[in-house]
């Protein structure tokens, strides 16, 4: 692939694949509403474009982390139902109301502030309630459920939804999943007839017992692996090509990169890529003689990263290409169908989420499709 002059690398985001992934998950969760989690700039793909594509595919419920993200979705998809996972920022209730954002309330302080605003305006504005069933992050404690029920009962307020979050859903047989499911059932019993949501991407794939009235897929929408130890059925959404700047020769015994922790054991041809940790490639994808690193796909072959990744540059060994060497200006695929997101993440000792949300580098973005698919 030859890259367009002046643009450096090129990040291609397949909105058609994003839409197909949502529809595939919607079929699995038949009987439950399928939302779309678009926090963190839609996992690095662009929140406005991704939200429009997901809406075109059929999504109507969206989860964001912050009010700013919620406002971005509102501007892109005016009729969206938007939940803010961070809950209610102190003093920001009027903003949520103006933007028609639903806070996911997770503390008594948040609840009181929201209820007071409802009393002040004489209107029951919608919100979700988040209960912590074992991850020890945001959420009402289980011991607070009766207090919450009593407080909203005094005012005749009913939440739009009761929710919690699974800690170990990426390992389907983990005992904690069943424990959390049972604890969530105990919470639900205190809020009869209120819709419930527990499943993220992995929970959705684990089984219908976790689906309830709404599922909240995130990473699976963007082509990432949700469940460990299983084939990933989702289509890749992101492809990243970066420019090859130069082909150089290294001799046996010479070192590559900062720190001199990679020594060539043969005469080698090396491709210098215009891409480094400033562009989202993690330094953990570096390699040494003791440990392999990430890969790039060049001229039909996977080529190993050698040496330490620097701010702007990454070195790849292309010796195995023989005489079929690339030319400066050609693109090397570092994420995409030939370098799967999760394979690259595994090589860096991390997860696909981190690679996706790091994609804020010096490259142009190209969107493919719009999410509209034939039935």
UniProtKB/TrEMBL annotation:
Modification N6-(pyridoxal phosphate)lysine, positions: 39
Ranges for domain Alanine racemase C-terminal: 237-368
Binding site for substrate: 137, 311
Example GO biological process: D-alanine biosynthetic process
Keywords carried by this UniProt record: Isomerase, Pyridoxal phosphate
GO molecular function: alanine racemase activity; pyridoxal phosphate binding
GO cellular component terms, A-Z: cytosol
Active site: residue positions: 39 (proton acceptor), 258 (proton acceptor)
UniProt enzyme class: isomerase
Pathway(s) it belongs to: Amino-acid biosynthesis; D-alanine biosynthesis; D-alanine from L-alanine: step 1/1
A Pfam family hit: Ala_racemase_C
The protein's required cofactors: pyridoxal 5'-phosphate
SUPFAM superfamilies: Alanine racemase C-terminal domain-like, PLP-binding barrel
Top-level division of the source organism's lineage: Bacteria
Function recorded in the entry: Catalyzes the interconversion of L-alanine and D-alanine. May also act on other amino acids.
Family listed: Belongs to the alanine racemase family.
PANTHER family attached to this UniProt entry: ALANINE RACEMASE, ALANINE RACEMASE, CATABOLIC-RELATED
Protein name listed in UniProt: Alanine racemase
Source organism per UniProt: Devosia chinhatensis
């Amino acid at each position: 692939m030859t890259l367009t002059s002046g643009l450096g690398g090129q990040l291609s985001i397949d909105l058609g694949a994003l839409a197909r992934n949502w529809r595939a998950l919607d079929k699995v969760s038949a009987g439950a509403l399928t939302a779309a989690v678009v926090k963190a700039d839609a996992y690095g793909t662009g929140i406005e474009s991704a939200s429009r594509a997901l809406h075109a595919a059929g999504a109507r419920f969206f989860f964001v982390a912050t009010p700013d993200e919620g406002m971005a979705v509102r501007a892109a998809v005016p009729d969206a139902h938007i939940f803010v996972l961070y809950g209610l920022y102190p003093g920001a209730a009027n903003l949520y109301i103006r933007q028609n954002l639903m806070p996911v309330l997770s503390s008594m302080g948040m609840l009181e502030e929201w209820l007071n605003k409802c009393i002040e305006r004489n209107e029951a504005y919608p919100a979700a309630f988040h209960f912590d069933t074992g991850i020890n992050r945001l959420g009402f404690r289980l011991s607070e459920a009766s207090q919450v029920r009593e407080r909203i009962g005094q005012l005749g307020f009913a939440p739009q939804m009761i929710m919690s979050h699974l800690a170990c859903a990426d390992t389907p047989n983990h005992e904690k999943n069943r424990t959390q499911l049972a604890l969530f059932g105990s919470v639900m019993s205190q809020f009869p007839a209120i819709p419930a949501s527990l499943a993220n991407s992995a929970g959705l794939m684990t089984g219908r017992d976790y689906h309830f009235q709404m599922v909240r897929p995130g990473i699976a929408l963007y082509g990432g692996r949700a469940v460990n130890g299983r084939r990933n059925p989702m289509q890749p959404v992101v492809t990243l090509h970066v420019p090859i700047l130069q082909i150089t020769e290294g001799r046996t015994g010479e070192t590559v990169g900062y720190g001199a922790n990679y020594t060539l054991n043969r005469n080698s041809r090396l491709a210098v890529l215009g891409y480094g940790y400033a562009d989202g490639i993690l330094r953990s994808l570096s390699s040494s003689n003791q440990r392999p690193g990430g890969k790039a796909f060049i001229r039909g072959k996977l080529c190993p990263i050698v040496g330490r990744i620097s701010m702007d540059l990454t070195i790849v060994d292309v010796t195995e290409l023989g005489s079929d060497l690339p030319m400066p200006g050609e693109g090397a695929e570092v994420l995409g169908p030939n370098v799967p997101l999760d394979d690259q993440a595994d090589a860096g000792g991390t997860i696909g989420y981190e690679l996706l949300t790091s994609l804020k580098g010096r490259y142009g973005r190209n969107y493919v499709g719009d999410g509209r698919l034939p039935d």
